[in-house]
Amino acid sequence: MDITTFITSLPVVSFLGLALLAMSLYWYKHRNIPPGPRGLPLLGFAPFFGTNPQDTLLELGKKYGNIFSIYMGPQLTIVLNDYEAIKSAFTGQADVFAGRAVGFVFRFISTGDDGKVHGITLAEGEIWKTTRRFMLQTFRDLGMGKSKLQDRILDEAEYLTNIFAKHDGRPFNPLATLMSSVSNVVSTLCFGKRFDHNDPEFVQMLANVQNTSVYLSQAGPVQSYPILRFFPGSIRTAWKALIRIGENNTAAMKANVQEHRRSYDPNETRDYIDAVLHKQREDSESAAEMNAAFHDEELLRNLSAFFGAGTETTTMTMYWSLLFMLHHPEVQAKIHAELDDKIGAGKLVRLEDRAKLPYLEAVCRETQRLANVTPFGVLRANTEETTLLGYRIPKRCFIMPNFKSVNVDPKLWTDPLTFNPNRFLDGQGKVFEPAHFMPFSIGKRACVGEALARMEIFLFFANIMQRFLIRAPRDSDIPSTDAYTTGISCRPTEFKIEIVPR
C-alpha cells in the first residue's frame, strides 16, 4: 500500500474503529440487563407512557416478562412487574434496593435554602435510617396505630358525617370534605391542631396537595430533560406552578415551626414539630453537633412530605371506596347488615369493633387492591450493581415496582378485575391478608404512615356506612371504575353521590 492510498483510507479506518469501539462499549454497558422496548433516541420510552403508565407497563410485561428495562430519557429504569420480582428485590435484597431514585424534579422540590437536598423522601444511608426510626417512634408516641389517636379520628369522622348530612339528599361531590377530614388527622400529628374546613390557610394547603399531583404529571418530562422547563408551553406552565406550590408549602411549614418555637414547652410534646425541637434542644445543651436529621431544613421537608402524602393517598382510598359502593349496592347491603347486627344503630364504630366487622374490613382491603391508589409508590434505586432474577442491574438504576401487576394477577387472585371482598375472608369468616397484598409497599422503604392510614380508612369508612346509604344521583350515570388518571396517586373521575340517613 503506497502512502497516498494509506492516507486516503485512514478516515474510513478511523471511523470504523470508532464505530466498533462505540458498539463494544454499548454492548459492555448493556450486557445481560433485562430486555425491554427501545423507545426513541434521547426520549426513551417516556412518550409512550400515556396517562396511566401502570396499564402500559402491564401490556409490556406480556411481551418482556416480570422484569424488563425502559429508558426514561437517558435514565435506565428497571420495571418489576410481578410479585416475585418485587419481593426478590425489596425483601430479598432489601439493603441494595433501599436507595431512592433522584430525578431532577424531586431533587429541585427537596432542595433547601442551603442548596442541599433534604427530607426523608430522597434521603439514604444514616440520615434516612435516623429519620425513619425517629418518625416512627414519634408517631407511635403520639398515638399512631393505637386507641390514643382514635378519638381525634372519630371527632373528625363525626364532623365529616355531619357535613354529609347537611346535603339532605341533594347530590354532592364528597372529595373536598373527605380530603379536609383526612388532612386534619395528619395535621394533629404534624402541627398539633385541626383546622376549620374553611380556614384560608388550610384551603390553600389542600389546594397545594391536589395541584402537586396534577402538575407533577404535566411536568414529568423535566425529570429527564431539565432544559424543557425553559421552553414556552404546558410543561413550563406546570413547572412554574410547581415552584409556586413549593414556595407556598415551605412558607406554611416555616410559619408552623416558628409558632411552635414561640409556644415551646420542653415538658410537652404536642406533635412532630415539638419532638424535633426537643432533639434540637438536647443537642444544643449537650454541646454536641446537631444531628443532620434534625436540622430545620430536614424538618420542613419532612412535614411537607408527610402532610402531603398522608392526605392524598388516604383521601383517594376513601374516594374510591364510595365509588365502589355506588357500583356494588349488594356489598353495601352486607356492610349495613353486619353493622346493624354487631354494633347497633346510632353508635360510633371504634377500633375495638374491628374484630366484629370482618366483612367491612374486607371491603377496605378490596378497595385498596382494586383501586391501586399508589401504583408505583415512590421509585427506588439500587445502591450498588447487583443481579436480580438472573439479570445484571447496573448501579443507580431507577427501580419501578408496578404494584398493579400484582393486584390484578390472575395467578394470585381469582377473577382479579371483579370487586369481591370475600377474597380477604378465610374459611372461618375472619380477615386475612395474603403476602402478595402490599398496598403500603414492602421492604425497608415501606410506607412510614401505614398504621395511621389503616386506622383512618377503617374508622372513616365504617362511620360513613354506619350513618348512611350511599347511592348515585337519580338520572345520572355512575362513573366507570376504569376511568382514572395517575399522578402521585391514582384518581377516579370525579363523581357525585346522594346519601340516605339510616
From TrEMBL:
GO cellular component terms given for this protein: cytoplasm
Chain positions recorded as heme binding sites: 447
Molecular-function GO terms, alphabetical: heme binding; iron ion binding; oxidoreductase activity, acting on paired donors, with incorporation or reduction of molecular oxygen, reduced flavin or flavoprotein as one donor, and incorporation of one atom of oxygen; steroid hydroxylase activity
Superkingdom, natural source: Eukaryota
Segments crossing the lipid bilayer: 6-28
Co-factor requirement: heme
Record GO biological process: organic acid metabolic process; xenobiotic metabolic process
Swiss-Prot/TrEMBL keywords: Heme, Iron, Membrane, Metal-binding, Monooxygenase, Oxidoreductase, Transmembrane, Transmembrane helix
UniProt xrefs under Pfam families: p450
This protein's record includes keyword Metal-binding: yes
UniProt keyword Protein transport, yes or no: no
PANTHER family: CYTOCHROME P450 306A1, CYTOCHROME P450 508A4-RELATED
Family: Belongs to the cytochrome P450 family.
Name of this chain's protein: Cytochrome P450 2U1
